[in-house]
Design brief:
Helices cover 47% and strands 4% of the residues. The protein is mostly helical and 321 residues long.
């Protein structure tokens, strides 16, 4: 995503026991394992008689709270349906993560720092307050999930709901308490720039040319809103369907600079679609163009590459043990 605008998380099915006795045996065994784990990591009070805050037959809740990701996914999908928010959530996740700097190790999705100034006021994030506001009731409903996880998970759910293959994602991001750890504004890609700028931004995060083209393929979703970015219009004729039309249209349509419009953007012959200068750099640059041609011919390959690159993007800056 530019300035504008997990494996799929599936809860492990609970085992069905033939009798109350076998249930109690399994429950006792699981508690015994939990006790050993707690002792090993120095956690006191992990095993308790009251299991209201932790399901002993669901070990994934022992340390990460008890978020029901299956239900959370369904709730996000409901918002997507009601608010046409799919592209918005993909952009929110993208921009939450796309500030990473591999040299300094700063930025990225950890911290959920877009909640705070100056990141929230970055012009590149205009309009994303709506996405954060739409997710706020879910943060209240699922208090154990961090904002950082919620923002990125919403993007995963949205992309998959609109047709993207399964994206690798896992919980564990933490939240910053204030804006002191916000990355400096200006790290996100500038849609008005060309190939050199695009490479500078994505290389800073650790992506190669093929991954860059795949990630820009997120423009198969959504549209530009003039009130947010100054740019106006959709990239494709199905802004809520994830496919390779963005690349196909880049090659098949005849593009020219839209007259009497600022900032500069391109329009097709029928004037119903638009491309940004950074989008057009993908066909002006011969190295980028070879991947555009590849994805235009093979939508399944694009989906596979996008899912891998997007999963990598959402992990940037995450500190895991």
């Amino acid at each position: 995503m530019f300035r504008l605008v997990a494996s799929r998380v599936v809860p492990i099915a609970g085992r069905r026991f033939a009798s109350t006795a076998s249930f109690e045996t399994a429950n006792s065994t699981t508690k015994a394992v939990a006790t050993v784990v707690a002792a090993a990591v120095g956690v006191t009070g992990l095993v308790a008689a009251n299991t209201s805050s932790c399901d002993w037959l669901k070990p994934w809740t022992w340390f990460g709270g008890s978020t029901n990701y299956k239900q959370l996914r369904a709730d996000i999908e409901d918002i997507i349906d009601e608010e046409a928010a799919g592209p918005l959530f993909v952009r929110l996740a993208w921009h939450s993560s796309g500030t990473f700097d591999k040299s300094s190790g700063t930025g990225g999705s950890d911290g959920g720092t877009m909640r705070f100034a100056p990141e929230s006021s970055d012009g590149a994030n205009a309009g994303l307050g709506k996405g954060r506001d739409l997710l706020e009731p879910l943060k209240a409903k699922y208090p154990s999930i961090s904002y950082a996880d919620l923002y990125t998970f919403s993007g995963v759910v949205a992309a998959e709901y609109m047709g993207c293959p399964t994206i690798s994602w896992k919980a564990g991001r933490t939240d910053a308490n204030d804006g002191s750890s916000c990355p400096p504004n200006g790290r996100l890609p500038d849609a008005a720039q060309g190939a050199a700028h695009v490479r500078d931004v994505f290389y800073r995060m650790g992506f190669n040319d093929r991954e860059i083209v795949a990630l820009i393929g997120a423009h198969s979703l959504g549209r530009c809103h003039i009130e947010n970015s100054g740019f106006d219009g959709p990239w494709t004729r199905d802004p809520y369907g994830f496919d390779n039309d963005f690349f196909r249209l880049l090659l098949e349509e005849t593009w020219s600079i839209r007259p009497n419009f600022t900032p500069m953007q391109y329009e097709n012959k029928d004037k119903d679609l638009m491309m940004l200068p950074a989008d057009m750099s993908l066909v002006f640059d011969p190295i980028f163009k070879q991947y555009v041609e590849l994805y235009a011919k093979d939508g399944d390959l694009f989906g596979k590459d996008f899912a891998a690159a997007f999963g990598k993007l959402l992990e940037l800056g995450v500190k895991r043990n």
